[in-house]
Design a protein that fits this description.
Elements: H1 15-34, E1 37-41, E2 51-62, E3 66-75, E4 79-83, E5 88-99, E6 102-115, E7 120-127, E8 131-132, E9 139-140, E10 152-155, E11 166-169, E12 175-177, E13 182-189, E14 195-200, E15 205-215, E16 222-223, E17 228-232, E18 242-249, E19 252-254
Parallel strand pairs: 3-7
Antiparallel strand pairs: 1-2, 2-5, 4-7, 5-6, 8-9, 10-11, 11-18, 12-17, 13-14, 13-16, 14-15, 15-17, 15-18, 18-19
Length: 262
């Protein structure tokens, strides 16, 4: 981060400079159209084609990076913002030769860091969720995909504010399967979710399956991983046939794509 944005400084005219000048002419000309710059003529042009050297000063932003603090007691997918990042600033000063209004050569470059970027700091969970396999003998890190044909991911976890899960577009009546072994805690019409199933798993984990056309389980029932529990529909707040799938841990929403089998 501390290195200048250019690979050389203060070079005078010569073979090496001339080879690189064309690149910098284009870059500085482009930058001049997008950022604030100052030009100080060394001498005045007496004709349209007389060469004039000008000092061009360009300000460029230096992007910040993200520093992560791992939390072993929080599940993977949990994030907490500690502090926002601040972009730095680099000042590039160049001597540019013009013929009339056309920049034709860069004779020297000097880059100075006016302000160093400050990293964004985020806490993140590193603990993994585990689900029991269909026969109950093995615990896996990932959860099973709730649709055998996997459907089409029409909306992800970050698609719009308040979207707490992922959406898979699929034909009406497509079977929906339990992502992991669990107990049915809800199997009914559930407001905007339409016909909905919620399964409770180990360690406070829940999975939710919404907008179904038909439910095939009842509250209190225990289902195995991969067992058919519903069929895809478009009930509740829905504009087309799809499955809305959520993953919750102790009431907090997590991106299912982190854990679901891909």
């Amino acid at each position: 981060m501390g290195k200048p944005a250019v690979g050389y400084q203060g070079m005078t005219a010569g073979k090496k400079t001339q080879k690189k000048s064309k690149r910098w002419i284009a870059a500085i000309a482009s930058a001049m159209a997008a950022v604030i710059f100052i030009q100080t003529p060394v001498w005045s042009a007496k004709s349209l084609f007389e060469r004039v050297t000008k000092t061009v000063v360009v300000s460029r932003k230096i992007p910040f990076e993200t520093t992560c603090i791992d939390l072993p007691n929080q599940y993977k997918g949990y994030t907490e913002l500690v502090s926002e990042g601040v972009m730095g600033e680099k000042i590039i000063e160049a001597q540019v030769v013009y013929e009339g209004q056309q920049a034709v050569q860069v004779t020297s470059l000097k880059a100075t860091d006016a302000a160093q970027p400050i990293n964004r700091v985020v806490k993140r969970g590193t603990k993994v969720l585990r689900s029991r396999t269909a026969d109950g003998s093995v615990w896996k890190v990932s959860f099973r995909h709730p649709l055998k044909n996997r459907g089409w991911l029409s909306a992800d976890f970050y698609d719009y504010p308040g979207h707490n899960g992922i959406d898979y577009a699929a034909p009406y009546g497509t079977p929906v399967y339990a992502s992991a072994e669990g107990k049915v805690t809800l199997a009914r019409w559930y407001g905007e979710y339409g016909w909905c199933v919620i399964l409770q798993h180990a360690d406070g984990v829940e999975t939710l399956y919404a907008h179904n056309s038909r439910l095939l389980v009842r509250v209190g029932q225990t289902v195995k991983q991969g067992e058919k529990i519903a069929e895809v529909g478009s009930t509740g707040n829905s504009t087309g046939n799809h499955l809305h799938f959520e993953l919750r841990v102790n009431g907090k929403f997590y991106d299912p794509l982190i854990y679901i089998d891909q």
